[in-house]
Amino acid sequence: MPEADVFAVLANPVRRQLLVALRDGPRAAGDLAGSFALSRPAVSEHLAVLRHARLVREEPRGRHRYYHLAAEPLADVQEWLNPFQRYWRERLTALKDLVEGDDL
Description:
By secondary structure, the protein is of the alpha+beta class.
């Protein structure tokens, strides 16, 4: 099975909200589903997409499934975005220097 495109997975706002909901620790699938105005199967489908992209991992505990945030794919995204952040920081610093400079 081909690896999922993490950026395409993150383009969906429900999936991003699910990741935010998991920042404070693992949560049961039913608990996560209760936090959204979607059907439980719809939330499960989004969790499956996140799991396929390795953005979350699933842990069965008894009759429940708990989801954990997986940091590695997000670190890869951060690594890809980092040069752009540096580009914009440098551009804004140059603009600030121009505005605050004596050349005006």
